[in-house]
Structure formats: structure tokens, C-alpha cells
Amino acid sequence: MSSLIDLDAVSFAYRDPQGKTYPVLQDISLKIAEGELVAIVGANGSGKTTLIRHLNGLLLPDQGRVLIAGQDTRSADGRRAIHQQVGMVFQHPEDQIISSTLEDEVAFGPENLGLAPAEIQGRVEETLRSMGLWEIRLRPPHLLSAGQTQRLALAGVLAMRPRCIIFDEATTMLDPAGRRMALDWMLRLHRQGITILFVTHHMEEAALAERVLVFERGRVVLDGSPRQVFADPARLAALGLELPPAAALAARLRHYLPGLPDDILTPEELKAGMDNISRLHEQVGGPQTAAPNINPPGAGDHSSLITVSHLSHTYLANTPLAHPSLNDVSLSVAAGASHGLLGRTGSGKSTLLQHLNGLLRPQSGSVQVGPFDLSDPSVLTRSVIQMVGLVFQDPEMQFFEQYVGDEIAYGPRQFPGPDSLADRVRSAMELVGLDFDDFKDRLLFTLSGGERRKVALASVLSLQPGVLLLDEPTAGLDPHSHAEILARLKGLQAKGMTLVLSSHRMEDLAELAQNLTLFDDGRVLAGGSLAEVFGGKALLEGAGLEQPLAVQASGWLRAQGWLLPAAVVTPEQLAAALAAARDAESVP
Amino acid sequence: MSQFEFLRSVNIGQYLPTASPVHRLDPRVRLVSYFLLVMALTFTRSPWGLLVGVLLVLATLRLALISLRFALRGLLAPLPFLLILALLQVFFNGRPDSGPVFFTIVGLVVGLSDIGVALMLLARFSTLVLALSLASYTLSTGELTVGLGYLLRPLARIGLPAHDFVMMLQVSLRFLPLLAQTAERIAKSQAARGADWDAHGGNLLARVRRIIPLIVPMFLVSLRRAETMALAMDARGYGSVEQRSSRIVLKTTPRDWVVVVFTIVIAVGIVILP
What we know:
The structure holds 2 protein chains of 2 kinds. Chain A is an alpha/beta fold. In chain A, 37% of the residues lie in helices and 22% in strands. Chain A starts with a strand and ends with a helix. By secondary structure, chain B is mainly α. Chain B has one domain. Chain B contains 11 helices and 2 strands, in the order αααααββαααααα. In chain B, a hairpin with a 2-residue loop joins strand 1 and strand 2 (108-111). In chain B, helix 2 packs antiparallel against helix 6, helix 3 (47-63) packs parallel to helix 6 and helix 3 (47-63) runs antiparallel to helix 11 (254-272). The relative contact order of chain B is 0.17. The chains are: A alpha/beta, B mainly alpha. At the A-B interface, helix 2, helix 3, helix 4, helix 5 and helix 13 of A face helix 4, helix 9 and helix 10 of B.
């Protein structure tokens, strides 16, 4: 069988202006057949993006050869055909939109192919309709939600009728519903016979592929089915990766549930495995109180540090582009507690966070943070931010200095204090685990994704705030950096920092938060403890989210007769609850 | 109102699809009409001509179903610069002084004619900004590309890269709102770490002092975004055939011709009015 993509000993290196070379791809030989569904995984900087840019002629190899459907990417004629046959969807959807209307945007590719107007118009309408964008085709693209923008980017590619589509971390910026939709589209296109390649940091996504390529330092080090690739957890960890969550949870619980099959990869397989294990000793149900290790309530005192009441906010008010963002939102956060915000993109989480440090002021309703009443115009944002630090979503996009040290020193420079600048920068860097002497003089753009995120954290911590606001703190990180940032945040929590964080990763919220507020369309749908909010399956799904895997798994086990406490939200707690149930059983 | 809503003041580059009679005109007709109007406004020396121009722009905005408040707010951003220009005009204009003299500073005579010149400049530039905003509200990037591509065909025939020029224009227009968003993000992240954005408005100097630190990071971020956009264009086959086509079929109706003739008459009128 002939392959659609054929790489023969491809090597590629970046050169800096001084002529120094940085090898990125080293001697890669690889064949991908028409119709395959391939996941590409690997730590940040392992060469994944560079590789896929070779596949439609955006980059040309230094050595070796790339053939797409028999055409060499080096030949100009070949590239023409390749651009039509291989489409790409990138990570930041808003940067790939070129036009001011959705119809123009989808037409861009077919127009580049020189097709007839009637043909283009037909494809535009068909594609917009099939992607569910036809009704909103008159909205300006820069005001679409992230999920809609990513669908628009995909529509622009589909209208060219490609044989192969490559997704470069295309789900990173999406909420759970958006990610599910993007994955559904990949699978659907795959069933239509289109070859799909996707780069991802989410192992549960990689588990859905037929074939997984694992990159490390410019080489393909593992190549096989998900079952083969995920068979060796130790090897994965060494490569900076991890097991898919369902596999990891199964591995943790197998000690208590010996009947679980040992090749579980997806939540569906986990559920099927659990359905086969009915409770052996149903007569000895452990009492609900048996489960230990339930999240303690926030730091003892219940006086709230942050109180938001009846807050509403509209962006671009009084313009034709006005859109409401918050509608009658109330919540409170106790000192030292951790509060999670969840909801789909555009549901108002970021807008709320920007109200908590005074960047945005209440249009109606009120926000009280510590001693500050933010409706009072004489309260200066400059005073509030010294108590409340905000780490924006995608903070690396907003760096404004060149060097790590300068970036972190920006805040302290605005507020001179008794300690020396260097000391303040040093202690902030220590908090996030960056070595001061090693990192202070490094250029920001040479850092890895995880290191940059740490710099962003340190640059806010350098003002020693008592409250930290985090907007999607782990989005876009590879598994290793993700685990590290989570650990750092837990460390801050242990030091008494009040956290308010938004996340699309339910598992992160389960790890970090004690209380949650669920947003939908600018309103508060639900609020309460982790167990209360994560227990509301229907409400979560209505808001485009889903329960964390450990909560789902507890539900499946309960259906089999296990008595598990309602407050189980993390894998650790589930394991502990199972251990407790077993111990209760062994006592006669 | 938040001091960070930069998008609020970037009107040029936004397309407002209101499906109005103006939007239904042949894109070439809109382009030619706006061009004639802008030229007439630029070259007229007559205050009456400017008045006719303002009224025409405002009427067209209404006809295009665009809120006048929204359009006029677009003048706020360039206003400080226009005022400075006008002020300079008061002192340094080439016109011989005539009419009553109000006062003299360090040898510079300020009279009625100087005030008149400054007011003309203010009116002219404000109307031009409005006219350009009108063009961007009513021309989508696709219409702009195909219309301008058609009008510039003679240039393409003599070997000039007319199509690339048109695409450049489209991408720049698309970039304006992005630039505003980028500036907004950077301003917010600087304010979140201590930059002083508290004084609402503030004097001109304070404003400039806040904006300067935005410029370099804005360029860096914009360059990165431009690079991604170029990649996305490449990946979708831009430049892979000699002659790009378009989804839009150009078709003129009698109504289009009426509009062109009407615009020519008005444009000539604006220029020759006393």
C-alpha cells in the first residue's frame, strides 16, 4: 500500500543569526498511510511542531526528503498540490483568521486555488452549515468565542477538501465542550477517509488514535498503537509524559479491585471494567463516615476575604458590538481558602477575575476585597494589586521584557520597598522553583513552556500578594510541566495563600480547590463544595463540562453496590475510600 | 466605562454587516465613491464644501444603518493629535494674516484667519476619519480584495504586484482590531503588576507616559501574530495559483451607476464650492 506521507531520513536545524545551529529533527524516517489517525506526543521542544510544518511544505528539510502523495515538498509545483491536500489547524485560533467575515474567511483557501465563484460560494455555505457557523456568519471573527474561532479555522481548511488535516495542539485553548467537539470532528473526518494527524499534550486524546508517535529531542522514540505506547509507565515518565487518566486511575485502584483488566486506556474501558466487578460482600457496607481524607474546610475561619454581590458587566457597552459578560454574579471566598471557577469559554470567569484585583470596576453590583470596596473610584488599582496578584491566561503572550530577571522585577520596581530588588526577585523565583543565578539573565523566548509559566507566576508573586488569581494556570503545558505547576500552587496554598482559579481541567480543580462556582452565560449556575458541584452531573453537562474521572468512577462503583462517600473527587480519595471499605470489611 | 477597552476607540478596521442598501452596492462602486469623497475632502478649500462632505458622510452612515454615536466615538482616539495639529496651524500657517488680530505671542500673530485655518484642518481631518471608518464598516475584506483587485487591474497588467498590495491592505485592516486587543492585554498585565492606569483620562503627558511602555511589547507580540498569520495563509495555499479567484461575483445594476454619477457630482461640488 502506498503511503500518503513518506519521510526519508529527514533532519532539520534552526540557525540563529550568529550561525549557531540547533538541531530540531534528527534523521526521521516515517510513513503514514492514507486514512490513518495518528497522535503525536512529546515534551515541549521535542520537535513535534517542526515536524508537522514539514508535512505541507511550510518548512523544507536540511537533509532527507519529504514526499506527500508522491510529490516532493522541495518542488514548487509539488508544494502547490500539497497545500491543497494537506490542511493545518493551529493552536491559537484567532491568529489564523485573515478576513473580516466568516464567509470571506472560509472562501480564502478555495479562492487561492482559483476555483469558480459559484463553486466557492457552494463550498462556503456547505462548510459553514456543517460546522454550525451559518447562523452567526455575520459576527466579526475577533468577537467569536475560542471554540467558534477554532471551528472557523477548521471550516477554512475543510473548504479546500484536503486529503489530510493536521491539528497542531488545536484543542489547547478550548473548553471541555470545545475539545470534545474538535475530537468528534477529527474522528468523523477520519471515518470519511481523511488522514488525521494531531499533536497533543493530553494523553486521553492520544489514546483515541490508531497510532501514537512519541517524540524526544527530535527523534521518534516510540511508534505504535496506544496500547503498545502506554504499556510502559516508567518509560513514559522518562520521556516527560504520563499515562492517560483512565489508565492511571485503573493502575492506582487495581490494588483494591484486582478484577480490573490491565489494558484500560479510555474512560469507557474503565467503566466496562468496573461494571464487571460487583461488590463481593454487600452485607458489610462501610458506613459513609468511614472515608478519611476529605477536603478540610478553608482555614478554619469563615469570615470572607472576597465578597462579590450582584455583579454585572457588559463589554463595549453602548456600541453595536456590546456583549454582556456577567449577569448578577454573587460569591464569597474565605481567607486562606481556594476557590475554583468553572464554565465554558466566554461564561464570564476571566471577567470576574479581572474584577477581583480592580482592573475592571463594577458597572452594577459590588466587589469587596479585603479592605477595598472596588465600586469606590478613590480606591486605586495600584493599591489593590499589591494584595491581589493576577496571572492572566496565556501569560507568556504578555511578557514585555527580554530577560527573566527584568520581567520578574517589573512589579517590585513600581513599588520600592525596604528589601533590595534582587532579594525580592530571588525570593519570588524560589517560590516557583527557578534558580535565581541560573535563570535571571536568560532570554525569555529561549525558555520552555513550563519555565515561562513559572516566570509568569514569579512575576506576580514578586509583589508578595496574599491572594493569587489564576486564569487557566495549566493550559498548554506538557504533562511534566503541568504536574510541576500544580505542585507549586499546592505549595503556595500550604503557605496560606488564598487562591481563586479558573480552569477547564476538572482534575486540576479537584486537586486545588475547596469550593467551586459554576458559570454559564455570565450567570452562576451552582456554587458550593467540590462534592456538591461535581456531584451535579446534569448541571455540569448542561454547562458543557463533565465530572472529574474519579467522581465518574465512584459513580460507576456505587452502581455496583460499593458504599463510597459522596465527597470523593480525586484519585487519592477514591483509593483511600476503597481502602477504608476493605478495612471495614476485614473487621468481623 | 473601563480605561482598558481599547477596542472601543478602534473603529477603523471593523466591518459591520448590517445588510443595508449601502452594503448591497457593487463593491467597486463603494470603493470608487469613497475614494472620490476622500479626494474631494482632502483637496477642497471651501468650508461649504466640507459641510456638504460631512453631511454626505453622516447621511451615508445612517443609510448604512450604523449608529452615529458609535461612528462619532471613533473620533475620540485621534482627537488629541488633531488638536495638536490644529494648534500648530494657528501659529504656523502659510496664509497671509488678514482680518482682526486677537493677540501676538513672541512675534507670532494670531488673528481670525489663523483660527479659521485651524478649524478647517480640524473639520477636514475629522470628516476624513469618519469617511474612512464608513468605508471599513461597509466593505468586508472579501469585497475589498475583489473590488480593489478589479480596479487595480491596469497596474497588474504593467507588472506591478497589485494583488499582493490588495492582500497587504486586507491583512492590515484585519490587524487593527487585533492590535487593539493586544494593547489591551499588555496594558492590563502591566496594570496588574503596578503600572499606573488609575488616573482616568489624565492629561496628555500622563497618557503618553502610559502608552510608551506598551509600544515595544506590542510590536513583539504583533510580529509573532503576523508570523502565525503568514503561516496560516501559506498553509492555505496563498500564492499557489497565478490568478486568485473570488466567491463574490461582480455585477453592476443601474442603481450602482446612479450612485457613481451622484458621487462624482457631489465630489466636484465639494471641490468647486466657494
